[in-house]
Amino acid sequence: MNKIMQNKTTEGNKTQGVIFNIQRFCLHDGDGIRTTVFLKGCPLKCIWCHNPESQQREMQLITYASKCTICGRCITVCDNRRIEDGRLIINRDKCKKCGRCVDVCLNEACDICGKYVTAEEVMKEVVKDKVFYETSNGGMTISGGEPLHQPAFSLELLRLAKDENIDAAIETCGFGQWDFFEKARSLGASFLYDIKTLDSEKHKKLTGADNSLILDNLKKLIDIGADITLRFPLVPGINDSEKELDCAAELIKRCRGHIKKAEVMAYHNLGIGKERGLGRTPALDIESATAEKKREWEEAFKKRGAEIAPIT
């Protein structure tokens, strides 16, 4: 994790945000080589979320059981921990996210997820790879979580990227106020727009909200000529039924000529370990989608007359 700051910034009135990672040399978060900024906070709670540490905006303690040797060093600096039956027990309700456990751990078995930063501090990291953006038609992608959950911070990042002549993309679930999308579009942002399922009731069951606002915002983005890549996060046995593939294919065909492309995003189960590291029981515990399954999905769209751009 790129730890820009450990504590909340107090530099005048600069716009602050809460991030949990800055990942460089990304190849699947938009065109070219990109630097992806991961923000904390999301209005949806997808049961398959691969970044569950992004759902809450607040800082969180995350632990990695596979790295912990039960050495007891963290217990010497924290009263909310104990070793019982050879296991480390943590009272997370009393955790102050002070980070002292992180400081003394020799195995990097715990971390405080979430850092307060200014948009300017983030941009200092982003511009380091500007030469790669220029040679690959890449840039910066704001992800999460959900960028709309920190609108002022996200818009300031877009403004700074525009000043630096760096391409910027927003990875979004589409659930938020239209005003943000309009402002982001005016700052030159493109949109990686996720469609979880077109079944409204099922969408509510799987994510905690129906999809009417998401589809309305998509229509408005199309109406203003925004640069849109539709993305379909597919999970085996969850949102890949024949009916759902039919509906998704019809959406792609209706949007033909108005979107840049459509992509299938195959489920991977990296979020399961993170859920446990946050002290939670995963809502979904299945194997990652195979490369073969992804090809099957892409072929299913093709047979329905919908164009899909494979992610290599």
Largest sheet, strands/sense/barrel:
8 strands, mixed
List SSEs in N-to-C order. Answer: EEEEEHEEHHEHEHEHHEHEHH
How many β-strand stretches? 12
Strand order of the largest sheet: 7-1-2-8-9-10-11-12
Shape: globular
Computed structural class? alpha/beta
Unreliable stretches: 1-10
What's the end-to-end separation, in Å?
A: 25 Å
The total of helices stands at 10
Strand content: 15-25%
- Helical percent range? 25-40%
Overall mean pLDDT: 94
Radius of gyration: 20 Å
Walk me through what this model shows.
It is a single chain. The radius of gyration is 20 Å and the shape is globular. Helices cover 31% and strands 21% of the residues. Helix 2 (119-126) packs across helix 4. The two termini are 25 Å apart. It is built from 10 helices and 12 strands. The chain has helices at residues 100-104, 119-126, 130-136, 151-163, 178-186, 200-207, 212-223, 242-255, 270-277, 291-303, and strands spanning 16-26, 34-39, 60-63, 81-84, 87-90, 110-113, 115-118, 139-143, 167-172, 190-194, 228-234, 261-266. Strands 7-1-2-8-9-10-11-12 form an 8-stranded mixed beta sheet. The chain has a two-stranded antiparallel sheet with strand order 3-6. A two-stranded antiparallel sheet has the order 4-5. The chain has 312 residues and is of the alpha/beta class.
Layout of helices and strands:
Elements (H helix, E strand, L loop, with lengths): L15 E11 L7 E6 L20 E4 L17 E4 L2 E4 L9 H5 L5 E4 L1 E4 H8 L3 H7 L2 E5 L7 H13 L3 E6 L5 H9 L3 E5 L5 H8 L4 H12 L4 E7 L7 H14 L5 E6 L3 H8 L13 H13 L9
Parallel strand pairs: 2-8, 8-9, 9-10, 10-11, 11-12
Antiparallel strand pairs: 1-2, 1-7, 3-6, 4-5
Helix pairs in contact: 2-4
